[in-house]
């Protein structure tokens, strides 16, 4: 990756700075030498400003006067919460995204990188799916509110470019995990919920029950890798069209393989039970990372086994701050 910034000194405001990806970017910037001379990075949580509120959004932008914005903040939830509250996910995210993008425009922010998600892609589609297919059909019914709000970021980015020439863009990570993830067994992301479940089973001497057969395959990406890639996008990526940030289809692994890595990392020697009466969800939903590979053919993702081990170690060492 190029280490020189094309953009010059930046004052970067990161919304959602207290979440999984925000903390990963903070780590890369503050502890892995990711910050360049003269740069300033500000990491916001909802305590600094409720971005659903336009007044609070403007006030926080006035306070920090950013030149660049990484917009990660979003109302996110588990499957059942999404199904119950599609309207809240739609309205809160539309408001948050519009407040951030329009305030950035009004205050002359030169670049905004927002975050979409691979779960907003059309429900009925062909795989591997790529960046050109986001709007080709309705999203899955369970989270249509969240998905449509996210899709509108892409529409809005194109409109800001058409009317004002702004280079506001978006990234599409696949299944991110790492320190500071949500490890809640019911509502957390699959890999982190399994880490919590396995650790609990080890402490209590009980077996682990995994929902489904373990056969579905997913592209898991370590949050620190995505953090490094988002910083590259902020500095180097000039397109308005979004870019998928993920390992390739060849690095997709099954839930069973992920569970084996977790068991090894946590030294769990008990029984694993796969409850095949529970739904597997989609077997595969491979995202194509060819665009990323065209730009960064040599980018190295952290080997999954190593990344899972580091995440398990972080979870075990940080019971007070891990979200469970
Ligand atoms: N994790 C994944 O696998 C994944 C995959 C693809 C895309 N993404 C996207 O990546 C982005 C970051 O995800 P994440 O997993 O890091 O999320 P996360 O850990 O759930 O963090 C969400 C962040 O948004 C902030 N936030 C929520 N509501 C807010 C509000 N009303 N005002 C201001 N801030 C608010 C939270 O602040 P508090 O801490 O104060 O609540 C937190 O910093 C999201 O846009 C998500 O859609 C995530």
What is this structure's SSE topology?
Layout: E1 11-15, H1 20-31, E2 40-43, H2 54-64, E3 68-71, H3 79-84, H4 86-106, E4 111-115, H5 144-164, E5 167-173, E6 175-177, H6 190-204, E7 208-211, E8 217-218, E9 220-222, H7 223-236, E10 243-245, E11 253-254, H8 255-265, E12 272-275, H9 290-295, H10 304-317
Parallel strand pairs: 1-2, 1-3, 3-4, 4-5, 5-10, 6-9, 7-12
Antiparallel strand pairs: 8-11
Helix pairs in contact: 1-7, 2-4, 4-5, 6-8, 6-10, 8-10
This protein binds NADP nicotinamide-adenine-dinucleotide phosphate (NAP).
Write up what this structure looks like.
With 324 residues, the chain is of the alpha/beta class. The chain has a domain at 11-177 and 220-248 and 286-302: NAD(P)-binding Rossmann-like Domain (Rossmann fold). The protein is 40% helix and 14% strand. The chain has helices at 20-31, 54-64, 79-84, 86-106, 144-164, 190-204, 223-236, 255-265, 290-295, 304-317, and strands at residues 11-15, 40-43, 68-71, 111-115, 167-173, 175-177, 208-211, 217-218, 220-222, 243-245, 253-254, 272-275. The strands form four sheets. The chain has a six-stranded parallel beta sheet with strand order 2-1-3-4-5-10, sandwiched between helices. The chain has a two-stranded parallel sheet with strand order 6-9. Strand 1, helix 1 and strand 2 (40-43) form a beta-alpha-beta unit. Mean pLDDT is 94; it is low at 1-7. Bound molecules: NADP nicotinamide-adenine-dinucleotide phosphate (NAP). It is an enzyme of class 1 (oxidoreductase). Pathway: Nucleotide-sugar biosynthesis; GDP-L-fucose biosynthesis via de novo pathway; GDP-L-fucose from GDP-alpha-D-mannose: step 2/2. One of its GO terms (molecular function) is GDP-L-fucose synthase activity. Pfam families: Epimerase (PF01370). Its EC number is 1.1.1.271.
């Amino acid at each position: 990756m190029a280490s020189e910034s094309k953009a010059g000194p930046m004052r970067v405001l990161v919304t959602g700075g207290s979440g999984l990806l925000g903390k990963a970017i903070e780590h890369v910037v503050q502890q892995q030498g990711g910050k360049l001379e003269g740069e300033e990075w500000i990491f916001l949580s909802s305590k600094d400003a409720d971005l659903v509120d336009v007044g609070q959004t403007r006030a926080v932008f006035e306070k920090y006067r950013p030149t660049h914005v990484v917009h990660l903040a979003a109302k996110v939830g588990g499957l059942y919460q999404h199904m119950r509250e599609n309207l809240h996910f739609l309205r809160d995210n539309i408001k948050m995204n519009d407040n951030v993008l329009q305030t950035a425009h009004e205050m002359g922010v030169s670049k905004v990188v927002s975050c979409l998600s691979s779960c907003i892609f059309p429900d009925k589609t062909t795989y591997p799916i790529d960046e050109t297919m986001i709007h080709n059909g309705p999203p899955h019914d369970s989270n249509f509110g969240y998905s449509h709000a996210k899709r509108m970021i892409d529409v809005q980015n194109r409109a800001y470019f058409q009317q004002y020439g702004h280079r506001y863009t978006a990234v599409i990570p696949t299944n991110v995990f790492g320190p500071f993830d949500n490890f809640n067994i019911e509502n957390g992301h699959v890999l982190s919920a399994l880490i919590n479940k396995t650790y609990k089973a080890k402490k209590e001497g009980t077996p682990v029950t995994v929902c489904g057969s373990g056969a579905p395959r997913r592209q898991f990406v370590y949050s620190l890798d995505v953090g490094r890639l988002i910083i590259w996008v902020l500095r180097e990526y000039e397109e308005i069209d979004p870019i998928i940030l993920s390992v390739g289809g060849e690095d997709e692994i099954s839930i069973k393989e992920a569970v084996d890595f977790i068991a090894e990392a946590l030294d769990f020697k008990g029984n694993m039970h796969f409850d095949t009466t529970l739904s597997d969800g989609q077997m595969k939903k491979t995202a194509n990372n060819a665009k990323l590979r065209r730009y960064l053919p040599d980018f190295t993702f952290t080997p999954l086994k190593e990344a899972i081990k580091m995440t398990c170690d972080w979870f075990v060492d940080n019971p007070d701050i891990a979200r469970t």
